[in-house]
Fold this protein.
Amino acid sequence: MTSPEDPTAPALQLVDLAKRYATGVDALRGVSLEIGRGEFFGLLGPNGAGKSTLIHCVTGLANPTGGTARVFGHDAVDNYEHARAAVGLAPQDINLDQFLTVFETLDYHGGYFGMAKRDRHERAAELLDAFSLTDKRDDKTRFLSGGMKRRVVLARALMHRPRLLILDEPTAGVDVELRLELWHYVQKINAEGTTVLLTTHYLEEAEQLCDHIAFIDQGAIIAQGTPSELTQRYAVSTLEDAYLQLAGRSELSRAGLTAEEGR
Amino acid sequence: MTPRQIRFWSLVRRELSRFWKIKRQTIAAPLLEAFLYISVFGAALGSRIDELHGVDYVVFIVPGLVLMSWALNAYTNNASSILQQKMQRAIDDQLTSPASPLELLLAFSLGGFVRGGLVSGITLAVAALLVDMPFEHPGVLIVSMLLCGAFFAQLGVLAGVRAEQWDDISFIQQFVLTPLIFLGGVFYSASLLPAPFDVLTQANPVYHMVGLVRYGFLGFTDSNVVVSLAVLTVATAGLVALNLRLFTIGWRLRA
């Protein structure tokens, strides 16, 4: 299954990607999207919009029912081995194996992606340090606090040095320290060439970090562009206001909230 | 090792380390159970039972116990491991890796296969120290044991993939496997059964497995060795094909 990689292929290319669950729910209704190599891309939308389903179709956790997803030119279904090798996923829900220690979690993950033992040990030590986990190295994951578990999930996603890092709401319920640690680290690897796909409900974070943004709602992309393009297009000052306008909820704008509080 | 070999070994290592970390439960407990059977049915009650087909009762039941150890441990290990990882969604780590459906299936199968083989092997080694165990047809014995282990390992994988709660796994074990094993002639010879049970028992796949293993040890069986081997091979291959298909389409693993 060796296929030469097209060096010009985007990091992620979705063409009419559709997913209908067995329940009959259409979670994705023909999504087309392109994320260039090295981009920091934000996928924003309300709960249930289809963000996680889109990510699952790219990473093999869901089988698309229509269209295609290509990772660096490799089809996520027909050439899953190459496609998945390039992706690191930090899922929305913490999904650690409770039997494993922090180090084992990273070590096995590296193994699943074909990393040699020495490389796994060096990389694990590097990530344990980067995410302040070194003193938890031999703790079983089930005994960690929620914040520590989140750190392990993020370190695991980075373990095999993915070229496309997918962060599905990585900062939900996370303290300020970890949030900033994460963004510093992710900005650094993004500058070094790693493509990042981020979903988040914190729009100010997306506005600050992302080169490109797409809004998704009811399984379809409803707007996309750079943060400044989006704010200009909707004649608002923040990405959040653009989002609220798209959602038809402009009355919720913080501008109004501040004015009322100031009275 | 190539990256693919590292990947496969990591998947297997994960399954082996799971049962090894809780070896009191996964190795010691089933060993104790096997020795209780040998003690109670063999040593204590066996002295009151005449020889069966020319061997002491305790010698007669050891082949069935060795088989039962492999079968139940292979099944429970794989079913539990898969269900547990599904419930935690920790299995997504393997599912999002570049591993192929075949690699995943084999790795999940090998955990229980090895655990069952370990318990079964230790049971046999200790039984051989306590009583004089014959090994009449080692070739048939080894092939039969490996096939039986593979069959129940696959059955465990199937049950684990299908299961949505713990009850789904224990139901199959308590209401299907245990009756089939106990009625498969582990503790008695089918030739002692009254009609029509002597014929009905032949529909029980475990009867053929016990027959094969007993033939390997004692050189005696109620069943036809060639037919039993063929049926067991086809049944195991069928389960592998079914499981591979389920892993390929991601049934109850991928949305």
About this structure: The beta strands of chain A are 12-20, 26-35, 40-44, 66-71, 74-75, 87-90, 164-168, 195-199, 212-217, 220-225.
